[in-house]
Amino acid sequence: MRWWRHQSLLFTLCSILSCVRSAAGLIHVSGYEGREVKVSCPYGEGYESYEKYLCKNDCGSDDVLITTTEAKKNRYSIHDDKQKRVFAATISDLRHTDAGKYWCGVTRTGKDIYTEVMLEVGQDSCCDHSTKVQRYEESSVSFSCPYESEYQNSLKYICRGNQPSVCLQHALISSDNKQKGQFTLTDDMASRKFTVTITSLSQNNSGSYLCGVHGNTGLDAFSAFELEVKDFQQTSTVMSTINVVPTFTMVEPVRSQATPIPGKEIKDAALFYSVGFIVPAVLLILTSALVTVYKYKCYKVRGAGGNMNRNKTKTAETEEVIGVADIYQNQDVAYSKQRTSKPQSACQHHDDAGEAEQDSVYQNVTTADDIYCNQIFIKANRR
Hints:
Number of helices: 5
Strand order of the largest sheet: 1-9-8-3-4
């Protein structure tokens, strides 16, 4: 009886120690939202035929997600590689809520064997800050990608796009292969940064890039770049159109002699640049002279016109004064004639019976008819 109690106590103690040893090997896995992640769980020799499973939280009966007897359930699947003694549980269509603690379990008599798993889920986009770079075709560009000291011996790489989940899979170049086509990667561990250089740029190289550092645990670290490659010829044409200063295109003269004369090229270039600057200066001086002559002529024409206007004004005023004087003089003559005899003009509108009354009116005031007749008389005298 005592022997049985000692055996039972020893079995319980061994089970506890076995569980503690297994749980001490913490497994870190990470994935991105919308993607899938694989949890690889090793186990000891002799458990090849035992049931395996993946559970979450406290690993109660309701926390078991999938077992090797089901193979696939909802978003979970499992596979047991008995030769390698590793079973792998896969979680597809990852969500942010999937992050947390999991357990890899091996079913056995008594206490099961557990291995703790920590799952990290990140967003499949990068990054909050992106460095913008502009270059021209046929030139080169270099991306400087810093990293932490813990990643000195880790894999470095670069890819196009902004999806971290597929960046390593679609890497353009990595630290394992530091030269590939137009890409070159150099790693400066002392300054903790690696540099990727792209040569012979074309507009096809424009777009987003990610520098990645593969971590042993957790998610990879990234830095983002935006590259814009411009057409050099198109840019030159636009700048020439905007530039107001006249530009001169240098044309290399055709030389018949095989051996160039020393110093002749320098003199030719100096002469060309001198002519290039003198011609615009002469044109500017001639233009200024023409504008000055034009303004002077306009000034003289305006002055002559003003004098003529003033003379015309004075002549009109003189004629007006003479006309008024003639009107008054003729009125006096008409008045004296009417006093001595009857008026003989076409302006008479009354009969003989009214002549006496008309004479009395003429003695006091001058009527409108007299003024009208006098004006006719003045015009006749002028003619």
